[in-house]
Amino acid sequence: MATLHDMSDKQTVWIRHAEDDIRLQATFTYWKYLTPDDKTTISKQRLFTLNRLIDEPVGETFKRLKVNVAKHFYCQTKGGPRSRKTVEEINTDAANHVTVRLFDNTGLEINSSIPNSNAWVQGGKLEINEHHYYIEINPPAVKELEMPVNMLSGYFVRPKLSLEFADLNDCVFSWYRINGSSSEGILVGEEEVYTPTISDVGCQLKLVVLPKLKHRCGQSVEAVSKAYVTEGPKRDYLSERKQHISGWTSSQGFRVVTYNVLADVYTESEVSRTKLFSHCPASFIDYGYRKLLIAQELLEYKADIICLQELDKKHYDNYYQPVLSRYGYESSILLKKHQKVPPNVVAEDEESDCSGNKDTESENSDEQFVTVKEGSAIFFNKAKFREIGRHNLSIAESIDSDVLFADIMKQARTSNSITEKLLYHSGSSLQVTVLESVDDPTHRLCLCTIHLYFHPMAEAVRLIQTAVSLRHIQRIKGLYESQNHKVSTVFCGDFNSSPDRQTVQLILNRFIDQSDKVFSQDDVYKMFGLELRHTLQFSSASGFPQFTNYVPAFKECIDYIFYETEHICVEFVVPMPSEAQLGGGLPNENFPSDHIPLICDFSWK
Description:
Residues 257-595 form the Endonuclease/exonuclease/phosphatase domain. This protein is of the alpha+beta class.
């Protein structure tokens, strides 16, 4: 719970009026001294907030203000509490005990008939009895401040924070360790993000935020955690992987990480709890715990490029984007999107995958499409790259409308099952960001990430999604090459396809024949053959590890970092953890996802 601090020594009435809002809020503190002659000892004080219409005469607002002050400070009776007084008596007390005057910034008194929208002037002054207040219009403010439930030593802590009329970079943050009954605490940090130490274990944390916009300050707000800091996991495998990372890459290269972080929306379903991840205790699959491990691990790798799949939009907005931005990363997120399921199409079987949970979806204002609450995100180091273009592709939307894919969709329509999966059940979207090297603008990178359809029998669906993606990548690469730019492509993500399957073979071998068994091996996904080709010369930077996805019922290599070999080469691949280090299955106490991140260093040729 967040609490407003007392006003500063310079007394202020804070006026909030958001654009297009028909009401304004006036907030101020009123107090009484112990005796009229003692101006140093306060006997009572109270924070007031008035919520008034902007077209109301300011004199009417004064009447309400007088009544509120009188009720709390001047309406005590000898016979009992103030509630025994009638409304008329309270109004009389207000008139007798409370005087209110408002002045503009030149010292002229404001006429009481003027509407609120014009009466309150920045730099003006309000007088309530002997108290004088300066007026601040739309001051920097903290709208929401909430401490996290999970706090681990050695892992980043960031509150849920929402600001208004403030700049995050200007705000002042003060973290305190609270041990015992004292609420004051010991100052331990002065950044938006704090990493608890072993000394914080067993203690609560308090955060005080002073909102600011350049030289303007608002009311500071504090929040105290309900939870206590606990000791974070040691994660020996992470220490071993870090031994292979000496620091940031040089200007001649860059490091790429791809990681399916297991969306929160997919761990909440009944299928997930009882089948897919029944081996994992609830405390470790809780996203409040997992996100701390994920963010810390990502920053430990000192990657220039981070591609994430299954990232919840709410966690991107409230945690990953603000945390990683403090460490020099710029980012964007692309949510999955598919066409709305028509009445004559059977909905996805919930038992087949946790993504059947309908809470994962939200309809667009455009009724034809549905947006999934998770997707992919690209983060890049601003010291190494600058973004020069985004060319994202919603496969379910474009395959049915873009002439570039007309021949593919024509053949896909020979199978109702494939058509339904492509259009209505799989929201797979290709995120494409074109980057330019800060050190050498002649080096350009077409960075692509995707998460393909999951169903184990739907290799034909994944193959078509890949073919569409490759054509789009060729188109974007050609666009920049036509402007005489040298472009390299990195295509990474969760392809849900093992190395021997057709999806991977198309990427590496650039060809799938129309007679391939993928088009006929399963009656459900059977379709007329389709010859697929592309011209991109890809290799797998990370090779083919024994597994990148590791749950008790499924252990396989399905994540990859593919790259074009013409202009870049692989310098180093960070080794994967051993099977012994993974335990009985992922996620668990040390591994926050069911996938393992791939890490590769590249250099420019």
